[in-house]
Amino acid sequence: MNRKWKSFIATLAFAMIMSGCGGGSSGGSAVRTGEESPKPGEPADEFDRSKPVTLKIVDTGLVTDEEFQRFVVEPVKKKYPNITLELVRQKYSVDRYELLLAKGEKFDLLFEANLLFDDVITAKLADNMEPMLKKHKIDTSKIEQVALDSFKIASGGQYLSGVPFTRHFNVLYYNKDLFDKFGVAYPKDGMTWQETIELARKLTRTIDGNAYRGFDPDHVFRVASTLGLPIIDAKTQKSAVAGEKWKEIYEMYKTLYEIPGYKENFVSPGNYGEFTKGKVAMFAGINLLPYISKVSDQLNWDMAAFPSFKEAPGIGHEFDGHGIVVTSISENKDAAYKVVEVLLSEETQLDMSQNAKMPVLKDAKVREEFGKNVAYLKGKNIQAIYKSTPAKSHVSTLFDSKARTAMNKYNTEVLKGTKDINTALRQMDEEINKIIAEGKK
Q1: What does the alpha-carbon distance between residue 376 and residue 406 come to, in Å, rounded to a whole number?
Q2: Which are the contacts of 174, defined by CB distance < 8 A and separation ≥ 6?
Q3: Measuring CA to CA, how many Å separate 159 from each of 141, 233, 247, 299, 310?
Q4: Residue 71 to residue 357: CA distance in whole angstroms
Q5: Cβ count near 244 (within 10 Å)
Q6: How far apart are the first and last CA of the chain?
Q7: 303 phi and psi, to 5 degrees?
Q8: pLDDT at 195 > cutoff 80
Q9: Which of 301-305, 334-338, 381-385, 437-441 has the lowest mean pLDDT?
């Protein structure tokens, strides 16, 4: 064989090898640069890495600018350089999404809490995300089951319309300086609510003109959720606040607020700012670390396990998580699911955990690394965050957000003593049922 023929055959063989490796495309099929070929029967990934795409994400305060940049923008840009993310800040209101839609705003993703998901459904922005999660090979089985269940329940019970990426935890925060000042022993893991209130009696004092409250148990509806008490019964679509268990919750709060010197300095339940300012000795609630971080050089604090009821030992608030939603109106769904993929990746979840943003993956390594990179958490009782189990999520309704708003105004009246518990619960019950009736029209 002469030299020319040998050269021709070598060139032809090289071309055939290249075409067999997917070096080109035909028939107008989507470019899958850097992606695995789909298996027989699987839908093709239609995300085109070669085309720039801008995605809008709506947030009502679940992520800070720094968190958005570190945990979303940077890892997405690293893996998918053609995706640009634009954050749309929207002030919270029950009709926040309707207000955006009325202005003609189009957005691809949003961050939302499972406890506020009824507002997503009301605005018709929820979609069945499961087929696209499967298409983009996003393995949700790696997520904590309680987190997945809560978002499925919030989505209506049939499928996921949002995917959790972070969650709150429950602990009892305490000010060591105030305990030392009054000669009281620090809180211990495993205390009940009643034990915590008794401890608060020793710490509610006025010294040198400075008033201190012993304990803030956070919002009433949060504590009620540890016993599985919903505000609205999803089956009957009626208010559930007139029951005896709700009365017991309010009576427990009343016991705390009737401690001499407490009510006179009460502002509102769930006022974590009073704790970070050194005016409250204990605060039982969700993740306050973003706020504590701002005063960590002034506040001598630590954590103990979240208080619980005797009939529900070790149980905290119902699961309170933040999820990412690909909206029903997105025109760039394939690109949007790449953002979901990156946010749930082990790399991103580990970075979140190490920087004190609670992950949702089951992976023990990811969980154990919590707070590793955060200087002000050194020496703190980090294990306290794992000593309470979230209560099972209640089945939400489309009226939950408005009902919670209605409840808040009665809380202050009860706790300040301007309205008795029975009257408040009766009026609250009537108002919530009215909200439901009007919402069904």
Answers
A1: 38
A2: 186, 187, 281, 282, 283, 301, 302, 303, 304
A3: 14, 21, 34, 44, 34
A4: 10
A5: 7
A6: 88
A7: -130, 150
A8: yes
A9: 437-441
Q: Which two tokens stand for residue 120?
A: 């997503």
Chain-centre distance for alpha carbon 353: 14
**What gap in Å lies between CA 79 and CA 68, rounded to an integer?**
16
pTM above 0.90, yes or no: no
Neighbours of 326 (CB within 10 A): 27
pLDDT at 397: 87
- Does the pLDDT at position 117 exceed 60? yes
User: Which tokens in the block code for residue 195?
Assistant: 């034990």
Enumerate residues 6+ apart whose C-beta is below 8 A from 50: 31, 33, 82
What CA–CA distance (Å, rounded) separates 114 from 158? 15
C-beta of residue 169 within 8 angstroms of C-beta of residue 341 = no
Strands (E), 228-311: 232-233, 238-239, 282-285, 301-305
Question: Would you state the structure tokens that stand for residue 208, as one six-digit string?
Answer: 């040198």
In a 10 Å sphere around its CB, with 0-12 CB exposed, 13-18 middle and 19+ buried, how is residue 378 labelled? exposed
Pull the structure tokens for residue 2. Answer: 């002469």
Residues 344 and 324: their CA atoms lie apart, in Å, by 10
pLDDT at 25 over 60: no
Residue 353: the pLDDT is 97
CB atoms < 10 A from the CB of 293, how many? 16
Provide φ and ψ at 86, rounded to 5°: -120, 120
